Each structure stands twice: as C-alpha cells, then as structure tokens.
Amino acid sequence: MNDGWREVHAEWVGESCFVGRNPSGGEIRIGSLGEQPGVSPMELLLMAVAGCTGVDVVNILNKKRQVLTKLSLEVKGRMSAEFPKVYKEIEIIYHMWGSDLEPKAIEHAIGLSLEKYCSVSLNLHGVASIHSRYVIHDED
Questions:
Q1: Gap between the Cα atoms of 102 and 106, Å rounded
Q2: How much is the mean pLDDT over the chain?
Q3: What pLDDT was estimated at residue 139?
Q4: Parent domain of 54
C-alpha cells in the first residue's frame, strides 16, 4: 500500500483510554484507564515531533560525519486558551553528546529537518510557531 496512505487503528479499552496500533505491531496507550497512565493525544503529537526531527537530525549528522553518541529531545508546547485547543507555539531543545560536534553542522541539520524533512512539524506549519535550540554536553 504505497499510494501515500498510512493506516493505524485505535481500540477503545475503557474509560478515557484507547490502544493505538500500527500494521507492524507497534502499539501505544492513548489516554488513561484507572491507575494505568497513558499518553494524551496532544502529548503524543509532541512525541511525534520529537521522534520525527530526532531521526532526521541523527541521519543528517551521520552523513556529515559528525560523531553523535547520544541525542535527547525536550519538546514543550503552548496551547491556545480557547477551543479548539491547538498548539500555538512549540519549543524543541536538542541535547547532544558526541566527539567534536560542529555547531554549524548541527544548525544545518536542525534547519533541514524542521524546514524540509520532518513531516510532523511541517504538518503543524501555519498553526504553531516552532522554535528550536541545542545544547552540546560534555562526554561522560
């Protein structure tokens, strides 16, 4: 099914909880069921931004021969006060560890991801302003 369509399924399992599944068997709890916490749909959207841009940045830095040993993303979203409560602003902080990481290469990788390759953030274009920054941490 390579006609541009993607498909997932969500099954209600009680209270305010669904389990989402993709065709390859991946699943995630959306919402909560009693004492069992899950991920809210809006948190899931922020996680999708993190995963999408994270994969892009890793791949681009590899092509630039930057030795990245760890990447952790912190993503925050500010929602509108009224309905529909959409994200109006999203901040992404890339925490990076590696050997001799070049700031120029990192900035280029992040820019390419957010402006060209990350489908999730590009789907939010025009709704939320997305800001990013990065922090290079010393190797431990």
A1: 6
A2: 95
A3: 80
A4: 41-137
Domain shared by 81 and 13, yes or no: no
Question: With a cut of 50, which residues of the chain have pLDDT below it?
Answer: none
Query: DSSP labels for 16-78?
Result: EEEEEE-TTS-EEEEEEBTTB--B-HHHHHHHHHHHHHHHHHHHHHHHTT-EEEEEEEEEEEE
The verdict on 67 and 4 lying in the same domain is no
Determine contact, residues 91/131, Cβ cutoff 8 Å: yes
Residue 87 has what pLDDT?
A: 97
Q: For 69, what's the count of Cα atoms within 13 Å in the CB-facing half-sphere?
A: 10
Residues belonging to the chain = 140
Q: Which residues of 68-78 are buried (b: 16+ CB within 10 A; e: fewer)?
A: beebebebebe
Question: Do 50 and 98 share a domain, yes or no?
Answer: yes
Dist. CA 21–CA 23, nearest whole Å: 7
Looking at the structure of the chain, the number of domains it has is: 2
Domain CATH for 52: 3.30.300.20
Per the confidence metrics, is the pTM higher than 0.90? Answer: yes
